[in-house]
Amino acid sequence: MSDLMRKLRSRVGSAVRESWRALIVSFDINFFSQIFIEPCFNLCNLRCPYCPVGQGRQLRDMSKGMMSLDLFRRIWSKSFTAYTGTVGLYNWGEPFLNPALPAMVRHVKENSRARLVLNSNFSWRLDDRVREILECLDDDRIVISCDGFSQETCEKYRVGVDFDLVMHNIELINDRKKPQTILQWQYLDFPWNLDEAKAAEDFCKEKQIGFYLGKGWISPNYPMLPAPCPSDEDQSRCDVFRRSLTVNFDGEVYPCCAFYGPPQYSLGNASKKSIGKIFSRGKGKAMLKYLTFKSGGDDGIFCKHCVEQNTAVLESWK
Ligand code: SF4
Ligand code: SF4
């Protein structure tokens, strides 16, 4: 690397480190480019074999749950009214099973400038919920999770899927959505479905639907789970949480979308404390210091397990 490049990187690194330091002193929610809020935890209509939800595993020490609209509104007003980043209203479950989802979408669109991403297997009968959601969405995104272009192929992973119903729903949403709302087909590649990826992609091209071929995120030994990602810019231990901070259905906040506990690793509850407070003191602040300023950390910080052993997620799946 040339001296000039080294100097430039060092300057960028200092600037980024300053922004992390500023976050501890004076919090700005827009430090996070993306957050996830979970409407429906550990409930799904499908039975995907590599997914702990689909397999009905006990996730951390609780079984299942849906976020109530009241809780969602309290969380939103505490932390997110000034948020302009991206909010994923999904995580570990089928979000459309929560009947409050349309009202959550409406609340976000009426009370902030945040962009939404919704994700579903769409193997269920569309009803008024979808009409209401499509009315509210603007330059937001709807992602369809479907990994095949026939019933036979698709159901190898999406066990229980009704492929014809998914296709019917895709066409219907595509017809009814606003032009600025992006519809995207997410096709995870598996050895058995690559032959059909081209047909799915061609269909999307014809219908002007986005197509994303996922790079085998899900496999039997779960390499899909996020690994610490040291930042090139500032040499922090990991900056994944800046695009993956997660509020679970009960309001507990975790650093990554892959984590849902165990609860002793919660950074705090977003219905009781603002995200600003969570990161200005206590575990959130300790986490920032551990990742950015490379403090020793302690065992109560989830990221420390993740950085040192990269096994924290697997432990939480046991
Ligand atoms: S559709 Fe998603 S949440 Fe449901 S079982 Fe499959 S991977 Fe899991
Ligand atoms: S848990 Fe922490 S260290 Fe691990 S990937 Fe997420 S943000 Fe990075």
Description:
The chain has 318 residues and is an alpha/beta fold. The chain is built from eleven helices and ten strands. It has an eight-stranded mixed sheet with strand order 8-7-6-5-4-1-9-10, with helices on one face. A two-stranded antiparallel sheet has the order 2-3. Strand 5, helix 4 (128-136) and strand 6 (141-145) form a beta-alpha-beta unit. Helix 2 (69-79) runs parallel beside helix 3 and helix 3 (101-111) runs parallel beside helix 4. Residues 314-318 have low confidence and may be disordered. Bound molecules: iron/sulfur cluster (2 copies). Residues 226, 228, 238, 240-241, 255-256, 302-303, 306-307 line the site of one iron/sulfur cluster. One iron/sulfur cluster is lined by residues 44, 46-48, 51, 53-54, 93-94, 121, 145.
The stretches of 5 or more residues where confidence is low (pLDDT under 50) are 314-318
User: Taking Cα atoms only, what radius of gyration do you get, to the nearest Å?
Assistant: 20 Å
Overall outline: globular
Please report which band the strand proportion falls in: under 5%, 5-15%, 15-25%, 25-35%, 35-45% or over 45%: 5-15%
Q: Let me know the average pLDDT.
A: 86
Strand order of the largest sheet: 8-7-6-5-4-1-9-10
Query: Could you spell the SSE succession in H and E letters?
Result: HEEEHEHEHEHHEHEEEHHHH
What composes the largest sheet? 8 strands, mixed
What is the total tally of β strands?
A: 10
Structural class: alpha/beta
Helix content: 25-40%
Intertermini distance: 44 Å
Q: Tally the helices: what do you get?
A: 11
* Bound ions, cofactors and other small molecules, one mention each: iron/sulfur cluster
